[in-house]
Amino acid sequence: MIAPSKPVRKRQRPAYSCIECRRRKVRCNRTKPCGQCTAHNLESSCSYKENRRTLPVCRESSGVGGPQQEDRRQITPEDPKSSSNSPRASTLSGPIQGTVSKTRVFGHGHWMNTYSLVEGLSSLQPIGEYYDMIFQQANHGPLDRVAETVVQCKQLARVIKQRRPSRRCLPADIHRFFPDREVINELVELYFTTFESCHQILHRPSFMTEYEDYMDHPETTESSFLVQLLLIMAAAGPLHGDANVRSEMAIKASTWMYISQTWLSAPLEKDRLTLKGVQVHCLLLLSRLVNRLGADLVWISAGSLMRMAMQMGLHQDPNHLGEMSVQQKEIRRRLWYTILEMNVQAALDSGMSPMILDGDYNTLPPSNVSDDDLNGAGREIHRESTALKPSRISFQSLLASSLPLRMRATRVINSLQEEPSYDQVLALGNELASACRDAAIAIDQAAFMGDTDPAGQFASSYCSHLLRRFPLCLHYRYAIKAKTNPLYSYSQKACLEAALDLVSLLEDDLYYLLLLTGGGMFRDIITRGALLIFLELNPEPEADTSIFARKRNRARQGLLLQDAHRVVQYAKDRMLRGDTNVKGYVFLSMLLAQTEARLDGLPTKEPTLKALRESLDTCHNILESMATDTSTKSMYPDFELWQTNNMQSPRASIDADFDFLDDENLNFDFSDCYFPLQ
Hints:
By secondary structure, the protein is mainly alpha-helical. The chain has 25 helices and 3 strands.
């Protein structure tokens, strides 16, 4: 018998034309920028894709961030002429689409990259000039006093951070320093009615049984439950209605989180490979985000948590793991999807991949069964009868339905090897928009049929935030390009709508408390949304020539300006709640002053410079008050046993430079196309 012949593989010719000419199917002269892109005012979009069959030059260097190199740089494709004749081959298929910062690399989902996209826009001048003079140059010229204020702010921020406790052993009498039982009851209730709506970590009836036992016999309580209680109070503390309680919890929360981390990373690691250990890990990551404690490193910890969960088989559906109760099955499913949600959110923030594919797990999504119903469930849950109902909604199930899509979007956003085509971005953006619409409809139906209490509104806001930040990140860089290239105008519209949706979260009083203290995703309004609003209020001068365009812009400037004022006040309120974000508040204050001057038809330099001085003075006064506040001392009389005077906290040692967003050192630099290490 004659074997079937193999299909002849066609040779694929290497592409030497730029991406724009290939898309438009026109002849390219292969320069940079090419003649076609120059003729159509597309110089900024002219780029070449590396030929995968011809590998780029492997450049010699002393290592990433070596002494002869810049520590931070934006990676861009090489000249196609130089790369096509490479004498040597590299193991890489092409340059990464991201930023190298010292020893780390970031994809475009990382917030550092958002501001590099606006470098060179005339609508942000003269802010760039003043910023370079104050924060970059050695000679500050007429702004010497302003520069001295910046130095003082740096010193005060370091003093504040030196008081953070280091990790030590769990004290045997830690319960003696808990708040009153009434306050603990309120914090536990607050936690379950807020965070558990989207992250179902604990089974409430089981926890409350242990909680009552602890209140009756605190000396015999298991350490795992005690650590859970510590983290619940740390997470719910910023949401308490009493300002005195919030202040007390803010002092104790960081110590409790270090205690929990010490317990979790004990030498006997196998003792932590339990469902309670996974729950503690989830609560710890949540508390770190809520309290801004190492929030920029949560992706690393989430990876450890995910591997811990996979080691325990949570990525396999319980139906395949032998006999166990319905309650155990549901708890495992809830935990797994909580871990996946935390992981994808942290990956988006870190500019990295989720590191897991849909095929890596087969666990079914959690059902819509309440904790009380779960206790009385039979041998199995009938999912047909637990579908989402208008009068009752499972936010975790709602999030789980779009989780594969959002993981795929995160991989596209943060890809370091290949930039997606704009058609791919539009298709993915439409899917994300559809998922957000479906979630909004379900939430509105549930709100219409049920009670709209503050906790329910918080859950809706939290779920919306978890979803809507993905289309914002996906379209962000294209929305910036739309300022000079109308081809991307849809991204500008989609991005602005997502940003305004995030700003509307400030209207939720309870969720606003979380936005004041949170790190990571809870800074989206400042790190992403604010800039889009101000760019919309400050169109490019050469672009705003049509009388109809000016009328349309003027019609919506009033509401946008209100949102801009709200965002600036929000940045100031974050500082009043313990944030050491100086540059962020200063930058937004300067943008607001420039915007109002332009709307009034006035010169922008003097108002912008005045806003710079006044906002820096405000920051200095706030930090000085924080540094001299005696209430920030240790909560334990014998706290010296917990830390040494010369030891920096893990968070402080991450970046010894001036901390901007707590431990995230953002640099609004318009003279360079990179940003320093977070």
